[in-house]
Design goal:
By secondary structure, this protein is α+β, with helices and mostly antiparallel strands. It folds into two domains: 3-199, Ribosomal Protein S5, domain 2, CATH 3.30.230; 205-351, 2-Layer Sandwich (Alpha-Beta Plaits). The chain contains nine helices and 13 strands. The strands form three sheets. Strands 1, 4, 5, 6, 7, 8 and 13 form a seven-stranded mixed sheet that branches. The longest helix has 21 residues, at 124-144. The model has no long low-confidence stretch (mean pLDDT 94). The structure holds (3R)-3-hydroxy-3-methyl-5-(phosphonooxy)pentanoic acid (PMV). Residues 32, 35-37, 49, 123, 125, 165-167, 223-224, 227, 273, 313-314 line the site of (3R)-3-hydroxy-3-methyl-5-(phosphonooxy)pentanoic acid.
Length: 363
């Protein structure tokens, strides 16, 4: 089913009665290997990106919809009418009501929790917006009594969550996903992400991600300001060319199980992202001394034969990526060689997960 057909159908949904409905969804964060950085009007990416969804780092969100034509809209988050996330959600909610008009006569109560620190360079907005959107679309089904085939439901949720936070559109899938149109990938789109697991070598299905928290503080550069900086970035055109050529190589590395190529591309993407951030107007340095030390130690250890590599989002934390087959050895290396330089002394052992899930209770 085409996206426009789904959108058209959902626009016509009406509440079947005036009951109160609620639903709970858990959705993962994801880590991009090929980075989305820079967007055009309508939150469309200037280049394609590839990520895998995590397992341990996730958000669980419960939303309850009360029929209330007098006081519609979001009444609060976690019983807090001033919750900081409200500012981010308010414009998104206007989009939701425009696309799913049945919500215009509902008051919405949100309860949400994360398994990891907010805004610390781990994509909390990806898990946050995808969990919220999946819950919203599921609730719209309940309120209207309508059904959607699972793949249609997920495609629509990917599209809608993208309007909240770009990278959220990749979190509606387990394993690997691609967001951004490319002539080399059938069905790829700038509007929503697609599941690309059938093109991934089995060796990579259970890729591990040890998140080394250099700082759990609020990040200095929000991703929306970062994307904005790309609009007048002197290297923007070059970045798009680079990302498109990386996409081809990622396609090959992921399909063939070529870990060396995957490592080289992934690290280059992370360092390119930070090079773009540093060379933006008001150039910012998000990496901390500990981030650089971790990178050096990871690279030195790779020379000794351990197949490990890193990636970094728009923050100082280092994601150490490795195959499941090396799990025990890498864990020992992290605990003996890396843990002491993480100032927070915190790490999250995460791994490619199976994707979002409808829950019975908030965990
Ligand atoms: O979805 P946003 O606006 O939070 O942007 C995410 C940007 C990066 O995390 C740096 C890269 C990515 O592709 O996830």
């Amino acid at each position: 089913m085409e996206l426009t057909e789904i959108q058209h159908e959902i626009l016509s949904w009406k509440a079947k009665n005036d009951e109160v409905f609620s639903t709970i969804w858990r959705s993962p964060s994801n880590i991009a290997l090929l980075k989305y950085w820079g967007k055009s009007e309508g939150q469309l990416p200037i280049n394609p990106s590839i990520s895998f969804s995590l397992s341990e780092a996730h958000t669980t969100t419960k939303i309850t919809a009360y029929p209330d034509a007098i006081n519609p809209g979001i009444s609060g988050i976690n019983n807090n009418k001033q919750h900081p996330f409200l500012q981010k959600i308010a414009p998104f909610w206007l989009t939701v009501v425009k696309e799913i008009p049945l919500f215009k006569d509902y008051r919405i109560d949100i309860h949400t929790q994360n398994t990891f620190p907010h805004s610390a360079g781990i994509a909390s907005s990806a898990s946050g917006f995808s969990a919220l959107t999946l819950a919203v679309v599921d609730l719209a089904k309940e309120i209207s009594g309508k059904q959607l085939p699972h793949d249609v439901f997920i495609k629509y949720a990917s599209w809608l969550s993208r309007l909240g936070s770009g990278s959220a559109c990749r979190s509606v899938y387990g394993g690997f996903s691609l967001w951004g149109v490319s002539k080399d990938w059938k069905n790829s789109s700038d509007l929503y992400a697609i599941d690309i697991n059938e093109h991934i070598h089995p060796d990579f299905h259970h890729l591990q991600d040890a998140i080394l928290l250099v700082s759990a503080k609020e990040k200095r550069l929000s991703s929306s300001s970062g994307h904005d900086l790309m609009k007048e970035h002197p290297y923007a055109a070059g970045r798009v060319i680079q990302a498109k050529s990386h996409l081809k190589l990622f396609q090959k590395a992921l399909a063939e199980g070529d870990l060396e190529l995957l490592a080289q591309l992934t690290e280059n993407e992370a360092l390119s992202l930070h090079a773009l951030i540093m060379s933006s107007r008001n150039g910012d340095i998000l990496l901390e001394p500990a981030s650089l030390e971790l990178i050096q130690r990871i690279r030195n250890f790779r020379l000794k034969g351990l197949p490990i590599f890193f990636t970094i989002d728009a923050g100082p934390n280092i994601h150490l990526i490795y195959p499941e087959s090396e799990k025990e050895k890498v864990k020992a290396f992290i605990l003996s060689e890396l843990n002491d330089i993480c100032p927070e002394n915190k790490l999250i052992f995460d791994y490619a997960g199976t994707g979002p899930q409808k829950m019975n209770e908030i965990d």
